[in-house]
EamA domain-containing protein
Amino acid sequence: MILVTLAMLACGQVLFKQASTQVSFARPASFLSATLIIALFVYGAATLLWLAVLSRVPLSLAFPFYGLSFLLVPAFAWWLLHEPIRPQTWVGGGVILLGVVIASLGDRPQ
């Protein structure tokens, strides 16, 4: 469930990026764009799923996985939006991934 939540959050960020090209604060009606509404729905559903995760898993164990979003969002932006990603971003994401692995190893809190 944690990984599904993170994937949904990353998708929501990509949708927010797409919506940002369609909305304008000078035109309030533009905030009714389908992309923005879908992004808000996906993000809201991910938040509810995160609550379900937290009801089953200690926060100290679940939260380090949240760091994977710093790897997933750039990866989705590269894959879906064709944004260039600097090598430093990939290296930083790898370091975060290593940190998540280290944080999830060992005895689990009871």
Remarks:
- The chain has one domain: 2-104.
- The two ends are 20 Å apart (CA to CA).
- The CA atoms of residues 4 and 46 lie 8 Å apart.
